[in-house]
Amino acid sequence: MDRRRAMSHFRAAVVAVLLLVTVTSLRGLDESRAATGRNDKLYFPSGEFLVESSLGFREAMADWLWFRFIQYYGGYKKGENDLRYLDSVIASVNQLDPRFIEAYYLASFIYWSDLGQVEKSYDILRRGILANPDNARLHFQVGFMHYVLDHDYHRAALWFELAGKCPDATEKEQRFAAFARYRAGDDRVSLALWKELLESSVNPDMQELAATMIEKLERKLALRKLYGDTFIGPIPEI
To answer: Do 176 and 127 share a domain, yes or no?
Structure first.
């Protein structure tokens, strides 16, 4: 075994030992807190501590902390504890692994759906997008929140379009962008988006939907040309 491989095995062994010691210590804290009847079911170490103790294996440490958080959130849903550690644990996971998309996504969902903190949810997503500017899922989530929570269809359309430009985008982002543009009253932009989707899609159902929307929009624009801007046609729902 060469020196480099031996050093790699040594580092892995050290990390395993540190993880075991950390888990054992935190389990003891959990048991002692449960014995005193406190409702902060779990204890989470700081991101700085975990970064220092990870010895470069940050992603593995982030996975471990995330599994622990899922247990914590499950306890909250069962009424066993509150979410007082939510801010610190998400910040720690983000610090350990800034490309851990699920952490940003679920945290944003928890903030607006469980805690009603919509602005905090947006902040989490912005932080995730700064670290992962090419991720369609995070961009789409911002658009979805603007669409569903704020009913700001213009802003939602902008975010759906940004999501559609990401390397991992699917037809969904383009479809929602076109719907949002329609709801915002940007009929010509919506028509162009639907035509682009019709040309690029290989899904028969998506092609049928796009063709239907193109027909509606063209009819609406034709009527508006005849009767002026006072014409308002029916608005489809997503």
So the answer is: no
Burial 78-115 (b: 16+ CB within 10 A, else e): eeebebebbeebbbbbbebbbebbebbbbbbebbbeee
Distance CA(15)–CA(11), nearest Å, equals 6
Looking at residue 125, its pLDDT comes to 96
Q: Which amino acid appears at position 129 of this protein?
A: I
In a domain, residue 229? The reply is yes
Q: pLDDT tier at 230 (50, 70, 90 boundaries)?
A: low
Q: How sure is the predictor about 63, in pLDDT bands with cuts at 50, 70 and 90? A: confident
Q: pTM for the whole thing?
A: 0.68
**Residue span of the structural domain in which 171 resides:** 151-238
CA distances from 113 to 13, 121, 137, 213 (A): 41, 9, 18, 32
- Considering only CA atoms, which of 7, 44, 10, 11 is closest in space to residue 29? 44
167 and 193 in contact (C-beta within 8 Å)?
Answer: no
